[in-house]
Amino acid sequence: MRRIVALAIIGALTMAGLPGSASARRALWVWDGPTMDAVDVAIADGYDALFVHAAPGFDPADYAGFIDSAHAAGIDVYAMGGDPAWAQDRRAWKNWVGEVVDAGVFDGAVADVEPYLLPGWDNDRTRRRIINNYVSRLEAAHDASGSMDLIATIPFWWDLPEFDKKGESLAERVVARSDGIVVMAYRDSASGPDGIVAHAANEVAAAAAAGKLAWVGIETAPASLDKVTFWEEGRSAVATELAIVDQSFGAGYAGAAIHHYGSWVSLGG
Questions:
Q1: pTM reported for the whole predicted model
Q2: How far apart, in whole angstroms, are the C-alpha atoms of residue 53 and residue 42?
Q3: Separation of alpha carbons 87 and 181, rounded Å
Q4: Among 114, 115, 155, 203, which one has the highest count of C-beta atoms within 10 angstroms of its own C-beta?
Q5: How many whole angstroms separate alpha carbon 269 and alpha carbon 251?
Q6: What digits encode the pLDDT tens for the residues 33-52?
């Protein structure tokens, strides 16, 4: 029911003429670090944001030329980092955000912390503890981010009732404790009940309700299930399906985030 309501709201917002394809942005994950080739690809392929990996202890000087080149082309650069263990560590996530803030060169930070990869996630009691710790660590990291935007990457299924707490979905809890989200709606079709739009609908609606933005993430790397990636379909399919995604969302939608540079440059037509 929650997903149906969200879809109805978003449909109404889009029909009202709120931002759609004309304002939709494109971001690219770059796990390779500050490789200048990624900036060239971003310029050539129309990206206006890069999520570049910056591991704890990174040297800001290593990113200076990369960021200068990106900024000269009108491309925002977000430091991107994360580890499932950060969901349980009292300091690691917060400390990394502090490093990014102190560097003073990034436009924001993207935290890719995936606690469902931790041992014990399949146990109900352990999972509740992991989630509560994750939310607490996110809140502390967000407090440390100050005026810099901290965006959290989440899976599309964190809106399921089994993860609710006091009527609030886990996705909504993350939105409340961040400056925005990237929802990993990893499917190779925009439409249908198992498509990108349906899977991202609640998260975009939650972001809109909080006055924040949600990026909708797609996958281009090889995967064990064909439906989660555009690896087989290629770039033309990415363009076609993301055009539908852009037109489907209004308020709360930032644009699409493509995972990732290494597979994107190898993706067929």
A1: 0.92
A2: 15
A3: 16
A4: 203
A5: 31
A6: 999 999 999 999 999 999 99
